[in-house]
Design goal:
By secondary structure, the protein is α+β, with helices and mostly antiparallel strands. It is built from 3 helices and 9 strands. The strands form 2 sheets. Strands 1-2-3-9-8-5-4 form a 7-stranded antiparallel β-sheet. It has a two-stranded antiparallel sheet with strand order 6-7. The longest helix is centred in the N-terminal third of the chain and has 30 residues.
Length: about 180
């Protein structure tokens, strides 16, 4: 009696090929998905400021946003274990008044030097000239952790730029 090939065999040439293709597809897709997801969590950009974003600015940067000013963008980066916050604010009447009334830390006016670590990132616009800043402040902001005040940023700078009748602010805080 002649034996007919069985179609119900578990392991066939086609089955092995399909299993290998699925295995390698998963081996490539899963790490790519994980990398993309972690990168999306590492850098966040906010352009709409509701209550949650306003609280982030208040708690993490010590800046109270009022109705008279316009927050344009907030970038929060936790890449590589270090973190940094960048915020762009417009329609500020007076830099000194802003520092006194809207910033919860300590500050002192300083000169911006092209050798500073934050020189390039203090430009208000991409490719802008940081030396065009009218006022620059070195700042310190402390947060309370378990009853102890800890300096939140190693480097924290505010740069104010004249824009018509008001000022624009670029604030950069980073932990290195």
């Amino acid at each position: 009696m002649e034996q007919m090939p069985s179609k119900n065999r578990l392991i066939s040439g086609k089955g092995i090929v399909i299993a290998v293709v699925i295995f390698f597809t998963l081996m490539i897709c899963v790490p790519v998905f994980i990398m993309r997801w972690t990168m999306s969590q590492a850098v966040r950009e906010y352009t709409v400021f509701g209550k949650r974003e306003t609280e982030v600015v208040k708690s993490d940067m010590g800046i109270t946003l009022s109705n008279q000013m316009t927050a344009r963008k907030l970038t929060v980066s936790h890449a590589g274990g270090d973190f940094s916050f960048h915020i762009w604010i417009e329609d500020i009447e007076d830099p000194e008044k802003f520092m006194e009334e809207s910033f919860d830390g300590t500050y002192k006016e300083t000169e911006l030097n092209s050798n500073d670590l934050q020189y390039e990132v203090l430009a208000y616009d991409d490719g802008g000239d940081p030396s065009a800043a009218d006022k620059v402040y070195d700042c310190e902001y402390y947060i309370n952790v378990d009853g102890e005040d800890i300096k939140h940023f190693d480097i924290y700078r505010f740069a104010f730029y004249k824009s018509g009748d008001t000022y624009k602010l670029k604030a950069v805080g980073s932990k290195i």
